[in-house]
Amino acid sequence: QVQLVQSGGGSVQPGGSLRLTCTDSGTAGEPLVMGWDRQAPGKERGLVATFTVPGIPIYADDVKGRFTISRDLTQNTVYLQMNNLKPEDTAVYYCRAMRPSTVAPPYWGQGTQVTVSS
Questions:
Q1: Which of 37, 51, 95, 107 shows a CA-CA span of 20 to 30 A to 67?
Q2: Which residues are bridge partners to 10 per DSSP?
Q3: 23 to each of 62, 65, 76, 88, how far by Cα in Å?
Q4: What is the mean pLDDT of residues 96-115?
Q5: What is the distance between the terminal CA atoms of the chain, rounded to a whole angstrom?
Q6: Is the per-residue pLDDT at 29 higher than 80?
Q7: Rounded to the nearest 5°, which phi and psi values hold at 3?
Q8: DSSP character for 42?
Q9: CA-CA distance, 59 to 43, in Å (whole number)?
Q10: Phi-psi label, residue 76: left if phi above 0, alpha if psi -120 to 50, beta otherwise
Q11: Whole-number average pLDDT of the chain
């Protein structure tokens, strides 16, 4: 069983920073491939950052150099450090987790609102 619980987010001025946290509070039975997606108003959900199965981080082009994804595999926890935030980063951020041993659909966290405005 996988149950993703997110924390963090909020409102910040342009140039500010936020850190998101996502933890699997269930019992996955194996390490999970975890990452982050986001969905802005009127737009489709898309990838922000994720780890590949080998543990290599991948970032969307518009967040490279500003966002950093990290993880603690012993706790099934993933973090997203967001620096130099811009208004266009405003979105609902969703934690995503997948079992590397299957091709099943991913699990999703509840979503966290991030708002960047002056």
A1: 107
A2: 114
A3: 25, 24, 6, 26
A4: 92
A5: 41
A6: no
A7: -140, 110
A8: T
A9: 18
A10: left
A11: 94
